[in-house]
Design a protein that fits this description.
- The complex is a heterodimer of chains A (about 400) and B (about 375).
- In chain A, a hairpin with a 2-residue loop joins β13 (about 265-285) and β14.
- Chain A has 2 domains: about 30-240, no CATH class; about 245-390, Nutrient germinant receptor protein C, domain 3 (GMP Synthetase, Chain A, domain 3, 2-Layer Sandwich), CATH 3.30.300.210.
- With about 400 residues, chain A is α/β, with parallel strands linked by helices.
- In chain A, the strands form 2 sheets. In chain A, strands 1, 2, 3, 4, 5, 6, 7, 8, 9, 10 and 11 form an 11-stranded mixed sheet that branches. Chain A has a 4-stranded mixed sheet with strand order 12-13-14-15, sandwiched between helices.
- Helices cover about 35% and strands about 30% of the residues of chain A.
- Chain A has 12 helices and 15 strands.
- Chain B has a single domain (about 15-345), classed as Orthogonal Bundle (Hydantoin permease), CATH 1.10.4160.
- The longest helix of chain B is centred in the N-terminal third of the chain and has 33 residues, at about 85-115.
- Chain B is globular.
- The two termini of chain B are about 25 Å apart.
- The chains are: A alpha/beta (about 400), B mainly alpha (about 375).
- The interface of A and B includes residues 23, 146, 200, 354 and 355 of A.
């Protein structure tokens, strides 16, 4: 009898453990956030007694509306359905966590950020001291966030970019992060920057660039980049598409693009299929640091307004020469922008110096791209070698 | 009539290889890259790790050699032969208490980490209790059963670890590894001590050797066993440095979990690799914990021969649970880990070395 009672008791206790998971949340009850945009609202009142951050931010959170998604899936008409697949909700606070928690008052489905894809920070926020790194903190610290979140800097208001329409993608956040993949076709945009990368730069204090995104009417434009000063993580300025292209050549991130040249006063377009670069450091003393950048490109003739016989090696080498000259011009211009105008080493050259000559690096680390600014004083040589692999389907399209 | 081949209480040298390897793969998987990055510069931590590995391998050899001198005898029996019964009893009970404390520590760490990453709302106490109950269930059965579970789990753990690294290769930057050899001697030394505690401390071998059917071969396989965690830790460390760089790795609480969070299977098919990785990591912790508990039970049973194993389980389990729940915050759990490090020096270095030396000097041998 006692034995029976104890076994009954054990079974009873066990049933408490078997009822299910404490943490179970049905998928219908989750509010999936796919994109976040951060804008600056105002400076907070310094006189106030309440513990507050220095700035108040407006966060725009993009929630997925599954009903809208399924509608789009069934019909070929795409986003033309009656219901949008997303809903943007904003919340204002000096603390990002408070913003996110405040969303729970407004949404029936509490926010869930494990599938967050995109974080857009406005130019205004990034240009205020300490603001950018303070915003990044929650995204780096929180367990729900992954390090693969794509980070972009918005020119103008960030929140409105989360409304960018597209017929193909029903979610603007996905639309934007897909555009960031297109570097293989266009070299005037930067390769996508992941949150993990930003964290690493915040810790090691090197200067860096983050892709820029702008609204142009209904469409977004992702050429150009925002340059950040390494030691205080403050944004200095935007660089345009041309400078970004030169930067891509130097950092080795060049995935594909085109170079327009003039051969005998007519336009010839060189379509780059493959580019690589080698950087060598030559340190005599800390006052004279030389970098040798050798860029090699492979490509084809993409377009030729001049009728040239591309079967002829002399013609080819002539074209190659003009291409090399053009690439060199672009790269030197970029180097000039960074050395003289911005005076920050977002080219990553400091890293090469660190690997090659650690002793010198340790001495000048604090004055690399600030203070004495050895970066601006260093000499950078550029060599370009371009190869035309083919002229496309024809040698000459016209006589 | 021959009984079922694997049903007997007897293990081969391959099993020794597996239990040594799976005992050592534990919490260090998650934290070791950070510990090394804190004390060494760039990718120099591998030097510390290899030195620690060599030290660990040599002492596991001493341990196995000592135990293989006395085939089919318990540690308590041959320790009594070498240095009187009371001293042997102190040694054995000391080892048993250490492994009880280790069981409690592993239970707590598992609860802390799974709560942080997987079960946000579940109380810590419940996670720890459930885990401990599973461990108790495992050790209540046959000893060989626990060992077979270890053999079953280890390949799964290794496959997931390798997958984790493959998924991160695209973010690996060779530039982060250089310049080489810039660390100070003090840094190397600190790194060596930190990593030594992650790949050593398996005095349990002193007890498991009793069941080995060919003890002569066992020392070699025990040494191979250490190479598995050593290789795994080396790869994870280099991967973390290559993906995050040293300064960032030093700031991450669990760099390996962050590696898992960095990994993305292309096409958005599986975005949360870290949940899979942590699930498998729980299996690794289960291996370590069940072996640790089993060793302490063996140690207690060998000293108090008349008491049944289940009695010890009923007495020890509540104690383990209370010890596990004793630290109030993560800082105190870290402190607990520090306290557990020092006895490793005694039980896996001093005890085996002195006993082996004494046995050689006095010419004491088992009947093998």
């Amino acid at each position: 009898m006692v034995k029976k009672l104890t076994s009954l008791l054990i079974l009873g206790v066990l049933s408490f453990f078997l009822t299910g998971c404490w943490d179970q949340v049905e998928i219908e009850d989750r509010g999936f956030i796919v994109g976040v945009a951060m804008d600056l609202v105002e400076e907070t009142d310094d006189e106030s007694d309440k513990p507050e951050g220095k700035y108040r931010y407006k966060g725009t959170y993009q929630f997925v509306v599954p009903a809208g998604l399924s509608q789009n899936g069934s019909g070929p008409s795409g986003g033309g359905g009656s219901e949008k697949a997303y809903e943007n909700v904003s919340s204002t606070s000096d603390s990002l966590l408070e913003q996110a928690r405040n969303l729970a008052v407004k949404m029936s489905r509490p926010p869930f950020a494990q599938h967050l894809q995109l974080l857009i920070v406005s130019e205004e926020v990034a240009k205020e001291p300490r603001s950018f790194r303070n915003i990044m903190d929650l995204f780096i610290r929180d367990n729900e966030m992954r390090r693969g979140i794509i980070v972009m800097i918005a020119e103008g208001e960030a929140g409105s970019i989360l409304d960018a329409q597209s017929k193909n993608e029903s979610l603007p956040a996905i639309h934007l992060s897909d555009i960031a993949e297109n570097t293989i076709k266009n070299s005037e945009m930067l390769s996508k920057v992941r949150l993990g990368f930003v964290h690493e730069r915040l810790v090691d204090q090197t200067s860096f660039v983050i892709p820029k995104v702008t609204m142009e009417g209904q469409h977004v434009n992702m050429t150009g980049a925002a340059v950040f000063q390494g030691y205080n993580d403050q944004m200095i300025d935007f660089i345009n598409g041309d400078t970004t292209e030169g930067l891509n050549f130097i950092t080795g991130e060049y995935k594909g693009g085109l170079i327009k040249t003039k051969v005998e006063d007519e336009l010839v377009v060189y379509d780059i299929r493959n580019a690589s670069r080698k950087i060598r450091v030559d340190v005599r003393n800390k006052e004279s640091i030389h970098f040798n950048i050798v860029i090699e490109t492979e490509g084809i003739i993409g377009e030729s307004f001049k009728s040239l016989d591309y079967a002829n090696p002399t013609v080819l080498s002539k074209v190659e020469e003009t291409v090399e000259k053009e690439i060199k011009r672009k790269v030197l211009e970029t180097i000039n922008t960074f050395q003289k105008d911005l005076q920050v080493d977002a080219l990553g050259l400091g890293g090469y110096l660190q690997s090659e000559d650690y002793k010198t690096w340790k001495q000048i680390k604090q004055n690399w791209d600030r203070g004495v600014n050895y970066f601006s004083k260093s000499t950078i040589h550029v060599q370009v070698k371009s190869i035309v692999r083919s002229s496309g389907a024809v040698f000459e399209s016209q006589k | 009539m021959k009984s079922f081949e694997y049903g007997d209480e007897e293990i081969g040298e391959i099993e020794i290889f597996f239990i040594v390897a799976s005992f050592m793969i534990a919490v260090g998987v998650l934290t070791l890259p950070r510990l090394l990055a804190e004390s060494t510069q760039f990718s120099d931590g591998w030097v510390s790790l290899v030195i620690a590995g060599i030290i660990s391998i040599s002492f596991i050899w001493v341990t196995a050699k000592l135990a293989s001198r006395f085939p089919n005898q318990t540690f308590f029996t041959y320790a009594s032969l070498i240095c009187s019964k009371p001293v042997a009893a102190v040694f054995t009970i000391g080892i048993a208490i250490y492994f009880v404390a280790l069981t409690a520590y592993e239970t707590r760490v598992l609860a802390v980490i799974t709560k942080q990453y997987l079960f946000d709302q579940t109380p810590l106490e419940v996670i720890a209790l459930l885990f401990l109950l599973v461990v108790v269930y495992a050790v209540s059965g046959t000893r060989v059963g626990v060992i077979r579970l270890n053999i079953l789990f280890l390949p799964i753990i290794l496959v997931i670890a390798v997958l984790l690294m493959l998924l991160n290769i695209q973010y690996f930057e060779v530039k982060n590894l250089t310049p080489a050899f810039t660390t100070s001697w003090a840094g190397y030394w600190k790194g060596t001590t930190e990593s030594f505690f992650s790949i050593s401390g398996f005095a349990g071998l002193l007890f498991y050797m009793k069941f080995v059917n060919r003890p002569k071969k066992a020392p070699k396989y025990a040494m191979f066993g250490v190479c598995v965690p050593l290789g795994l830790y080396l790869l994870l460390y280099v991967m973390a440095i290559g993906v995050f760089n040293t300064e960032t790795t030093a700031t991450l609480v669990y760099p390996t979990v962050e590696l898992a969070k960095e990994a993305e299977i292309p096409g958005g098919f599986l975005e949360r690799f870290e949940s899979l990785f942590l699930t498998i990591w729980i299996m690794a912790i289960f291996n370590t914990t069940s072996l640790a508990y089993d060793v302490s039970l063996m140690a207690f049973c060998s000293v108090f021969g008349k008491v049944k194993k289940t009695t010890f389980i009923f007495v020890l389990t509540p104690i383990i649970y209370l010890v596990a729940m004793f630290p109030e915050d993560v800082g105190e759990v870290e402190l607990m880990a520090k306290f557990l490090n020092y006895p490793i020096l005694i039980i896996s270095i001093i005890i085996p070395v002195t006993l082996l030396l004494l046995a050689k000097l006095r010419g004491i041998k088992g009947n093998g």
